[in-house]
């Protein structure tokens, strides 16, 4: 590797390569296609940025775009760009970020100034290609970062159209946390004899992360979160299932006196950038996020991840807890489980081949948990009694009424029931 890149690495304390970097960089430098799977936080970005820069510096210089990096989210694209700028200093290789949700004019200007590398989300890049704002005729390197997430988000049609628009003779690198069937199909079709690299179990949580679970009533979740914030040190990344839920929780924390912010799809890009930078710089101790934004969050030294709401699919659990315990550090992932969600937790444990360690609730929350348990049990008993009563009524209504010889329903004697009751009372008198 050239001295410029080596000096830039040393300047930014990139000294010891991670396992995925050690295994992916040599074949990538040889020009081979690469398919690499590794857990979040293992240094995949440098694993493709370094060989890309080395190749562009020593290859034939041509005008226009030479390399494209596709990313699922704006946040991840911006963080790839941040790493790229650090390592590319002094190389003469320029990059441009092409993403939605931001003013496109600076992006267009960066392309016109001769950016050789585009770091883009699939939707915005496809739009630029259709409008002929990007001419990828000489593109010779394509990287798909977090490929599984891009397909989860529905970008497959855009990716296929991008692949059709760029030269078939190129180096292609796939980096992903998991290789699902849809990703495998894409690899089989568009990758040529790749070097395959798998670092660690990609469907299991990192051994550096403790997995804690709390069984808690919905209305007591916030009190439990407050307890953790007051008792534990360090930063917290809190996951909510919906955009509105994330915003509501962030505001509630802020009103309670905690330094909190949120990142989700309803926020503008400038708001998301400000929130993420504030969390990185320490202005906010707590960042509340949705799953869509989770893979764009690459912040070192996050102490705690909180699954305030369970993820929709088990795979998202891995991506959430992968935000802590990075780069050899340890972390804790706290998962809040409502009584009706036990089956979902079992699915997560089975899919990821792991066990969440059930933790005792704080003393002040145990009473409300007991009440919730009793209420749930009472509800089950009530439902069972209602079902039984309904079955009895259905049987009674289905029983045919007694009829006379002529076939007409027999009229009940008004005095028959009382006489029966009287005879029974007399028998026990």
Write the SSE topology.
Blueprint (H helix, E strand, L loop, with lengths): L2 H9 L7 H11 L4 E5 L5 H15 L8 E4 L3 H15 L6 E4 L5 H9 L4 E4 L1 H9 L10 E5 L1 H6 L3 H10 L5 E6 L4 H10 L4 E5 L9 E7 L5 H11 L4 E4 L3 H14 L3 E4 L5 H13 L4 E4 L1 H4 L9 E4 L6 H8 L9 E7 L4 H11 L4 E2 L4 H36 L17 H12 L2
Parallel strand pairs: 1-6, 1-7, 2-4, 2-5, 3-4, 5-6, 8-13, 8-14, 9-11, 9-12, 10-11, 12-13
Helix pairs in contact: 2-3, 3-4, 6-8, 14-15
Q: Quick summary of this structure?
A:
With 429 residues, this protein is an alpha/beta fold.
Describe what this molecule looks like in 3D:
The protein has 429 residues and is of the alpha/beta class. The chain has 2 domains: 3-199, 3-Layer(aba) Sandwich (Rossmann fold); 209-367, 3-Layer(aba) Sandwich (Rossmann fold), CATH 3.40.50.300. 47% of the residues lie in helices and 15% in strands. It is built from 17 helices and 14 strands. The protein has helices at 3-11, 19-29, 44-58, 74-88, 104-112, 122-130, 147-152, 156-165, 181-190, 221-231, 243-256, 269-281, 291-294, 314-321, 342-352, 363-398, 416-427, and strands at residues 34-38, 67-70, 95-98, 117-120, 141-145, 171-176, 195-199, 209-215, 236-239, 260-263, 286-289, 304-307, 331-337, 357-358. A 7-stranded parallel sheet has the order 3-4-2-5-6-1-7. Strands 10-11-9-12-13-8-14 form a 7-stranded parallel sheet, sandwiched between helices. Helix 2 runs parallel beside helix 3, helix 3 crosses helix 4 and helix 14 packs across helix 15 (342-352). It starts with a helix and ends with a helix.
